Each structure stands twice: as C-alpha cells, then as structure tokens.
Amino acid sequence: MKKMEENPPQSPFFKGGGCAELRKPDRSHSLAPLLCKRRGWGRIFFLLLLCLLLFAPGGRAEEQAVAPPLPPVNVPSPGVDLWNEIRGREGTAADMGQVRTQVQGVDTGVLINTGGQEWREYRMQTLIPNAAMALGFVALAIVVFRLVRGRIPIKAGRSTHKIKRFSKLQRYVHWTTAALFVTLAITGIFILFGRYIVIPLFGPEIGGPLVYGLKRIHDFAGPLFAIALVLLVIFFMKGNMPKLLDLKWIAKGGGLFGGKHASSECYNAGEKGWYWIAAIAGAFVVVSGFVLDFPNFEQGRNFMTFYHWIHSIGAVVMMSVAMGHIYMGTIAMEGAFEAMATGYCDANWAKEHHDLWYEEVKDKAVPADSIEQASDPGVDSGKQKVV
Amino acid sequence: MARMKFYCDAERCIECNACVTACKNEHEVPWGVNRRRVVTIKDGQPGERSISVACMHCSDAPCQAVCPVDCFTTTADGIVIHNKDTCIGCGYCFYACPFGAPQFPSDGAFSGRGKMDKCTFCAGGPEEADNSPAEFKKYGRNRIAEGKLPLCAEMCSTKALLAGDANTIADIYRKRVVNRAASALISGSNLQKTSFQPTLVPPELEGKASATE
Ligand code: SF4
Ligand code: SF4
Question: Would the pLDDT of A59 be above 60?
C-alpha cells in the first residue's frame, strides 16, 4: 500500500499494467518500495546496492532483481496493419487494389513506391560507375591496340583497281543510322553523366538548358533511329549470316594480332558480330526507348524503370562495341573508310582482308581513275582523315 | 534551425481533400498537377484510413540523388527546393521518389513532360526574390518567407495534417499516440479494427499499478 504513495503521480491510463513499452524504466521508482518497507535495514541495503551499482558493469541486472519483469501484455501496434497496407505487402488491401484517391493520374493510388529506391541504387551505384568503366576500358583498349599494333596498312600497296563493296542505298542507310547513333550516344551520355560533367563545367544556368536541348534531341532522334536501324538490318542482312568459317576466323583472332591470315568472305566474324549486336541490342534499346519516350500511355513508374534498365544496359553495350567499330572503320586500317564512303574498296585491300569474297568479285574490279573523278568532296575529306 | 516536416495522422484524416484544393488554389499549380493528394486504404471497409501525401522533403532525397542536372537543393530548414530553370523534365525524380511527389504538367509524346512540379513546403523557388511575380508563376506562393507555415496543414479541419518544426510535430503526435494507445488498451481493441472511442477507466483497472509486490 505504501508503495503506491511513494510512486510519482501517474496518468490514470498508466494503471493498466500492460503499457510496459510506454513506461520509461525509472530506477528511483523501482528502488522506492525497498526504502519504505524496512527503514533501517533498507537504508543499509540501499547503500550496498549503490556500491554494487558503482562497480557493476551495468545497473540492469540489479534492477531486475528488485522488481521482476512485468508479464507481457499483448497490445497490437496500431500502425502495423496500416503500414503493411501502405507498403502494398502481399495479402493486404493495397495489394488487392483497394486503394482509392480522388486525384487522377499515373500511380496516384500508390502511397509508397519501394521500387524507386531500387532504381536509384541501380542508376547511381551500378549504372553510372560501370558505364564509365566500360566506355573508359574500351577507349583504353583502343589506345593500347594502336600503340602496340599501329596502323594496319595495305601490305601490297594500293592497286590500280577498285571493287564495288556497298550500294548507294546501303551507304545512305549506314550513314543515316551512324549519324543518329552518334547523336543519341552523345546526348545519352550527357543525360547519364550530366551532373558530373555539365553542371560542374557550365553551372546550372547554362548547363540546365544545354542538357535540356540535348535531351529533346535524344527524344526525337530515337524514333528516327528506330526506323534507320530496321532498314540497316534489312539492307545488310545478306552476307552477315554466321557460318562455320567465322569460328576459324575468331580462333585466329581475325589475324589482328600478327598471327596467320584469317580467311573471310564479304564480312568477317568481327563485322558480323557487330551487325548482330547492333540488331539485337539495338532492338532492346529501341523498344525500351519507346516505352520511355512516350509517357503519354500512362505507364507506371516501375514499368518505366524496368525498361530504363534494359535501355541503359543495351545502350552501354552498343556504345562500347561501336567505339571499336568506329576506330576500325576510320583511322585503324588503311582502305577501310573509303569502302563505306565511296562504295568502292581497293582490290588489294579486299584480297588481304576478305580473300574469299575477292575471289568471287575480282572480275568486276574497275580502274581506280574512273571512280575518283566521280567522287564528291565528302569523300575527299574522309580520305584525308584516313591518310 | 528548425527541421521542417509534414506529418499526416491517419487516425484523424477524414479524406475531405481540402488540403489538395487549398494547395492548388494557393499556388495556382499547373493544370493536371496535384502537389498533394489523399489516398484511402481499405476504402469502404472496416479499418478504412486516409492519408494526405505530398513531397516529404526527405533528408536523403532520392529525387535529388538521381537528377541528371542536380537541380535540387535542401534549405537549412530541411526543405527540398527544386529549380525549374535547370530541370530538363526527364522524369527520373518521379521514378525515384517513394511518394510520387514530382508531377509533370504534361505527359506528352516524345517525352515532352515540361518542367517538374512538386510541393515546395510553401517556400517558393531557389533563385527569384521572395514572392516576386516570377517566383509565384513558377513555384507558387512563398508563405515561409512571410513567416507562415504550409497552407494545407494550417487549414486542416481535423488537424490530421501537421507541418512545421520536427520537434514540435513529434511532441504533438507523441501525446496523441500515448492517449490513443492507453485508450485502446482499456477497451481491449485494435485501433485498426474499430474506430477510436474514448472510454472511462473500466472498474477492473481501478487501483492497479504497473509495478507488482
Ligand atoms: S520529391 Fe519525393 S524524393 Fe524528393 S524530397 Fe520530396 S518526397 Fe523526397
Ligand atoms: S525531371 Fe527535372 S528535377 Fe526531375 S530528375 Fe529530371 S531534371 Fe531533375
């Protein structure tokens, strides 16, 4: 009875005995009964306890010895069900689509979207560092390859004859796709790395509108690229089908590393590989790009972030391989660029790099002079780059 | 410095949507954009609850982390401010935000979303002079600069929606929770299953204390 009097006044609600989690553990509170029950002995005992308290590593054990723990009372946390439902956990009302809101719009019925955090981690911790590493690694590999291997010349020198390698249509389709691809790659890189490149460099006042402009170009170039890519895949399908010969070419490393010459037909395995990467990764990038480019179909956030994963991985793969293709097609190899620029390749170049194809078409070789006169300025500038 | 916070008390919200309307009116937000919305869980069933949600002005804001042009800033009061001049309308903040706070004036084809718009905690934008016409047009009224708290919470009829300094909000809410938990305990009910009914202390609890002999 006395114990009650010694206790500090409490809210009537706290008499329940069950709200252990609400009551803060209070040492003086638990010691009080001892003090009042047996005055004299109690005081000595209290002093002893104090000593114990001073030397014991923690006062908790002692406290429990004085007042045994309260029996647990089952008070359900009022928030548990509600928060499970808000998180849309399985079997909850939110999971069963019983969430309503008067505000109409995309995903407005979702209170907490946990997918956003996953996507944030993917973009910031996985995509950006790995994309930077992949692109940097390919660039480095190209530099090392250049230093080790140098420029690949036509060993037998230029011949007097040229062979038609690409039709006019093929060249137009190639260069349209190439121009759109480079545009998309550059604008995409600015969207990916903008906050690390553009904003520190130009500041938000100029950097913001700059990236905005680039993003708008990306938005419109994308669908055009989709059309160009389909045409590219169609027009270059002939000759790009994989064959057993390609395995031999790969086994010989394409003859790139000073090994034996690797035979090939119109396209070697490297070119075929690029064709199929462009076709397959390109299809993924194009389809996912449409999902991201047209938010007007009210697709949800998690749907769009899923396609962003595909879009970004596909794009990084394409950009990495494209860097190799651009290098090989321009400054790496004598006689390679002019084939796509003019449509004609040097007969000796064909013999050295596409021997089986050369055997097929060597009868159709034409004298070089007859073509050079017809060449346009664009081709000349292209040639200067090569030489 | 205060740490500004919103808190919506689901036990009090009556889904009147007044906060949504007041916000739209106060800031004259673009058509189709709702900076705040009320979401009802278990609509029409026992245990129905409504929560008003807007930008929660996160400490480690996902929108801020993913933005390609880094156009968010957090003020000293913990308000996440967005710069519409820098924004490129990419929608990444909308993907990352857990609360769906970032909105776009249009969801046009070719990703022409326009500049993102979200709750400013009635603190306007980052650059323009406080309550200048330019700021108002882009971000709405700057009530914080006038020494006022967000309108949605100020006019909430049930005081379900609280806005202001985190410590004060936490104090108010803590008191509510303590009283409700005790009440639920006494009536032996789960707050989720029944509505809140204050009862007198039942006789069997008279004279009982939390400590035993
Ligand atoms: S917009 Fe979303 S992520 Fe950004 S601060 Fe507001 S609630 Fe947080
Ligand atoms: S929409 Fe604007 S604010 Fe949002 S992530 Fe893109 S640029 Fe940043």
Answer: no
Kindly give the number of the ligand 1 atom that is closest to the alpha carbon of B100.
2
For residue A212, which amino acid is it?
Y
Residue among A336, A328, A334, A340 at smallest CA distance from A174: A340
Cβ-based contacts of A292 with chain B (< 8 Å): 111
Report which ligand 2 atom has the smallest distance to the Cα of B70: 8
CA distance A95 to chain B (A): 10
Taking only the tens place, the pLDDT of each residue in B106-151 is 877 898 889 999 999 999 999 778 889 999 999 999 999 999 999 9
Alpha-carbon distance of B88 to A53, in angstroms, equals: 63
pLDDT tens sequence across A228-270:
999 999 999 988 998 888 888 888 877 776 656 778 888 988 8
What is the ipTM metric for this complex?
0.84
Q: Give the pLDDT of residue A373.
A: 56
Pick A296's closest partner by Cβ from B96, B107, B210. Answer: B107
Report how far ligand 1's centroid is from the alpha carbon of A174 (Å): 44
Q: Select from 3.90.180.10, 3.90.550.10, 3.40.50.300, 1.20.950.20 the CATH code of A115-373.
A: 1.20.950.20
Question: pTM of the full predicted structure?
Answer: 0.78
Whether residue A43 contacts residue A6, with contact meaning beta carbons closer than 8 Å, is answered with: no
pLDDT at A382 over 50: no
The DSSP string of A148-164 is: HH--B--TT---SEEEE
Q: What residues are in contact with ligand 1 under a 6 Å CB criterion?
A: B 55-58, 61-63, 80, 97, 99, 101-102, 118
Contact between residue A383 and residue A341 where contact means Cβ atoms under 8 Å apart: yes
What are the sequence ranges of the domains in chain A?
Answer: 2-66, 115-373
Domains delineated in chain B = 4-168 (3.30.70.20), 169-204 (no CATH)
A168 interfacial to chain B (CB closer than 8 Å): no
Contact A99 B182 (CB under 8 A): no
Ligand 1 atom nearest B102 alpha carbon:
1
Beta pairing, strands A344-346 & B4-8: unpaired
